[in-house]
Amino acid sequence: MTKKTSNRFSPEVRQRAVRMVLDHGGDHALQWAAIGSVAGKIGCTAETLRKWVRRAELD
Questions:
Q1: Which pLDDT does position 1 carry in this prediction?
Q2: b vs e for 16-54, b when ≥16 Cβ sit within 10 Å of the residue's Cβ?
Q3: Yes or no: is domain 11-58 CATH 1.10.10.10?
Q4: Is 16 in contact with 54 (CB distance < 8 Å)?
Q5: Domain boundary assignment for the chain
C-alpha cells in the first residue's frame, strides 16, 4: 500500500503558515488554537499544519 502524498500547498505557503502559527501563538491560550485558526485561513486541516509546525521546530 502506498501513501498518498499531495503537494497542494507550495513550500512558500507552508512556510508562511508555520510562521503565522509561531508569530501569533501568544495570541492564543494553546498553540493548537493558533494552528486551528491559521489552518482555517489557508484551507488545510489543523493536523496537517500541526505536522508542518513540528517539522519546522525540529529543523
A1: 53
A2: ebbebbeeebeeeeebeebbbbbbeeeebebebbbebbe
A3: yes
A4: no
A5: 11-58
Q: Where are the beta strands (DSSP E) in 1-59?
A: none
What's the average model confidence in pLDDT over 12-18?
96
Instruction: Give yes or no for residue 37 having a pLDDT over 70.
Output: yes
Give the C-alpha separation, 2 to 29, whole Å.
Answer: 38
- C-alpha distances in angstroms, 49 versus 3, 12, 18, 53? 18, 13, 7, 6
Residue 59's pLDDT band, with cuts at 50, 70 and 90, is confident
pLDDT greater at residue 2 or residue 54 = 54
Cα 54 to Cα 4: distance, rounded to the nearest angstrom: 20
